[in-house]
Amino acid sequence: MKIAVVGTGYVGLVTGTCFSETGNQVTCIDIDQKKVEMLTNGEITIYEPGLEKLFLRNLKEERLVFTTNLEEGIKDAQIVFLALPTPPGEDGSADLRYVLGVADNIGKLLTDYKVIVDKSTVPVGTAEKVHAAIAKNCKVEFDVVSNPEFLREGVAVDDFMKPDRVVIGTSSEKAKKYMSDLYAPFVRSGNPVIFMDERSAELTKYAANSFLATKISFMNEIAQLCERLDADVDMVRRGIGSDERIGKRFLFPGIGYGGSCFPKDVQALVKSSTEVSYDFQILNAVMDVNEKQKLHLLPKIRKFFKGDLKGKHFALWGLAFKPNTDDIREAPALYIIDALLAEGATVSAYDPEAMNNVKSVIGDKIQYAESQYDALTGANALIIATEWNEFRTPDFLKIVSNLKSKVIFDGRNLFEVEAIGELGFHYESIGRPAAV
Ligand code: NAD
């Protein structure tokens, strides 16, 4: 099939690449000229495990091409995906200006039947708005479909190639057929393609992300209780996770969720609820808990340094909002950095993939280390903010020889408390007893 993808960011590039991998002819369109030039020249613009190999293969086969020209990009396409940003507006609602702006332009360009697919995360009712924006200037038949994306950054290629499910919201039989054919190679192992109406599909995406965020905030509150009741959240987690109704996944406490999706999607669902006079109480609490959790290590750090962080130097492992991505949007590490700097401390950070992105946002406010061990040189303590695999079994002798004192504040519970205590570390983590 001939596919166009408008917006070539995390979702668009993965979508375009994976559709080309199954033999489709894909044109990715973006307004960012530099991005399009880089991609055309074979330079990948995001870090996503496994993506580069697929991207290069399909680029070479000329099944995957990039352009800044919307008209040229969609001309031959049978299906046009919108993978555009939907950032939070000032009031927390999803800002639809990119999606509706492009829809408006598409309306002026359509010359034959196409299926326009909304892959961006958008509030209920957006498919109707996209339809109206296109219809304003368009004389030919077209359909608008809601096909929310559930990929997770860090495992996006696997998620896209082998999705747990594909949700397709459409009331058009013709569009349904196009979408079924397109997704058939991705669900050969029997995972479901779930067809529904557009509004339910739009809500499904928000419900999924909000539920997952709720699980995280719930466990973070259990962790808070554990700290006050001398219980160990690791034990509680195992104890509840073995109940199939609860499940083992997404029960890990930490320093809060971040990223480009959970924070904005929970906020947008709360806003959508308010608009229909519904007070979504749980989600308000989920957001509150998360705000506090991002800085949960700070009181522990302050207490250890007797309230005075001025002149203290901290090593920080992890900047990305989660491992295996270079994405730093709403990353808890950035909140920790702000708080430490505000109290007169200095920071030397290391992240395997996200340092350039942080540098482009906060510049030289912190130091960027060559390696996780270089970051430790002369530091009064190590703070861990992202659970990259390479941080899980570090060389503790190197840590001891580089750090000024054996002190670790771990926001991701990477180490066994007892084992690290035996090595002589002062170690504080989330919801577990401290080793002192
Ligand atoms: P992104 O910011 O990484 O990418 C968006 C791209 O759109 C950018 O490259 C930008 O230059 C381009 N763009 C902006 N305006 C444009 C225009 N007028 N024409 C062409 N291109 C334009 O965003 P993302 O993370 O890929 O997210 C896209 C959507 O997918 C959002 O609604 C998001 O909520 C949703 N989503 C994201 C993820 C994720 O993990 N990132 C997962 C599922 C769903």
From TrEMBL:
<comment type="pathway">
    <text>Nucleotide-sugar biosynthesis; UDP-alpha-D-glucuronate biosynthesis; UDP-alpha-D-glucuronate from UDP-alpha-D-glucose: step 1/1.</text>
</comment>
<dbReference type="InterPro" id="IPR017476">
    <property type="entry name" value="UDP-Glc/GDP-Man"/>
</dbReference>
<feature type="domain" description="UDP-glucose/GDP-mannose dehydrogenase C-terminal">
    <location>
        <begin position="315"/>
        <end position="417"/>
    </location>
</feature>
<keyword id="KW-0520">NAD</keyword>
<dbReference type="InterPro" id="IPR008927">
    <property type="entry name" value="6-PGluconate_DH-like_C_sf"/>
</dbReference>
<dbReference type="InterPro" id="IPR036291">
    <property type="entry name" value="NAD(P)-bd_dom_sf"/>
</dbReference>
<keyword id="KW-0560">Oxidoreductase</keyword>
<dbReference type="Pfam" id="PF03721">
    <property type="entry name" value="UDPG_MGDP_dh_N"/>
</dbReference>
<dbReference type="InterPro" id="IPR014027">
    <property type="entry name" value="UDP-Glc/GDP-Man_DH_C"/>
</dbReference>
<dbReference type="Pfam" id="PF00984">
    <property type="entry name" value="UDPG_MGDP_dh"/>
</dbReference>
<dbReference type="Pfam" id="PF03720">
    <property type="entry name" value="UDPG_MGDP_dh_C"/>
</dbReference>
<comment type="similarity">
    <text>Belongs to the UDP-glucose/GDP-mannose dehydrogenase family.</text>
</comment>
<dbReference type="GO" id="GO:0016491">
    <property type="term" value="F:oxidoreductase activity"/>
</dbReference>
<dbReference type="InterPro" id="IPR036220">
    <property type="entry name" value="UDP-Glc/GDP-Man_DH_C_sf"/>
</dbReference>
<protein>
    <recommendedName>
        <fullName>UDP-glucose 6-dehydrogenase</fullName>
        <ecNumber>1.1.1.22</ecNumber>
    </recommendedName>
</protein>
<dbReference type="InterPro" id="IPR001732">
    <property type="entry name" value="UDP-Glc/GDP-Man_DH_N"/>
</dbReference>
<dbReference type="InterPro" id="IPR028357">
    <property type="entry name" value="UDPglc_DH_bac"/>
</dbReference>
<dbReference type="InterPro" id="IPR014026">
    <property type="entry name" value="UDP-Glc/GDP-Man_DH_dimer"/>
</dbReference>
